[in-house]
């Protein structure tokens, strides 16, 4: 009975999505990572662009299934970014000022409703391939 209770408690609701508490699956890690990498690759800072491109390439190389299943995730990220809602952080400097926080923005883009929906769809499509050994 206790084991069943623990299993039930291990599922939590996050932003309307039911997820297993604990480590993410490889497919979830890759699809969410691809969303964040796409966001970083779309930033104006060269270092962030390079890091995003490199991260996305690494995910594509290790992924299972059809890479094209990630296209809708990238499109959702780009559509979300078109809204231009990059957060700002306050810097207590001389003079105090606000500056954009693109890394924070990209890290949290996976929670935007349209991006979360695209991620969920891609995970469902790719999950069977991740259960098979990589060819």
Notes on the protein architecture:
- There is one protein chain.
- The relative contact order is 0.17.
- The longest helix is centred in the last third of the chain and has 18 residues, at 113-130.
- The chain is elongated, with a radius of gyration of 17 Å.
- With 135 residues, it is mainly alpha-helical.
- The protein has one domain (24-130): Four Helix Bundle (Hemerythrin (Met), subunit A) (Up-down Bundle), CATH 1.20.120.
- α2 (26-41) packs antiparallel against α5 and α2 packs across α6 (113-130).
- 58% of the residues lie in helices and 12% in strands.
- The protein is built from six helices and four strands.
Provide the helix percentage.
55-70%
Beta content: 5-15%
CATH third-tier fold name: Four Helix Bundle (Hemerythrin (Met), subunit A)
Number of helices: 6
Strand/helix succession: HEEHHHEEHH
The first-level CATH class is given as Mainly Alpha
CATH architecture: Up-down Bundle
What global shape is seen?
elongated
* E-strand count: 4
- Main β-sheet: number of strands, strand sense, barrel status? 2 strands, antiparallel
- What's the overall average pLDDT, rounded? 85
Measured between the Cα atoms of the first and last residue, the distance is 41 Å
Indicate the structural class: mainly alpha
Global Rg: 17 Å
Write a compact overview of the structure shown:
The protein has 135 residues and is mainly α. The protein is 58% helix and 12% strand. Strands 1-2 form a two-stranded antiparallel ribbon. Strands 3-4 form a two-stranded antiparallel ribbon.
